[in-house]
Amino acid sequence: MTYECPWQFDLVLSSVEQTSKLLFADVVRSAIGFTIFSVVLLTWAATFIIGGERLFGPGWNDLVMYNVADKLGISGFMG
């Protein structure tokens, strides 16, 4: 004779539902983060494709990292 507990199935089912809700929330957060990262990366790439000088004007030379490194004197190891 076997003894069946009907609550065990409900416990497993609720655990699966809870896990899927948590997983869904993680997937949504990851998708949002990836979208923000992609927009920032594409914007950064577009400044070099279009030309930073045309977008930002003469101030572009102050924004470019290697020019900042030259001004601070920390680019000596680059060659």
Automatic annotation (TrEMBL):
Q: Where in the cell is it found?
A: Membrane
Keyword Membrane annotated: yes
Transmembrane feature ranges: 31-51
- Note the superkingdom of the native organism: Eukaryota
Q: Name one GO biological process term.
A: Notch signaling pathway
Q: What membrane topology does the UniProt entry give?
A: Multi-pass membrane protein
What does the UniProt keyword field contain?
A: Membrane, Notch signaling pathway, Transmembrane, Transmembrane helix
Can you list the GO cellular component terms from the UniProt entry?
gamma-secretase complex
Q: Name one Pfam family in it.
A: PEN-2
Where would one find coiled-coil regions in this protein? none
Q: Which PANTHER family match?
A: GAMMA-SECRETASE SUBUNIT PEN-2 (PTHR16318)
Which family does the entry's similarity section mention? Answer: Belongs to the PEN-2 family.
- Name under which the protein is recorded: Uncharacterized protein
Q: Which organism is it from?
A: Oryza brachyantha
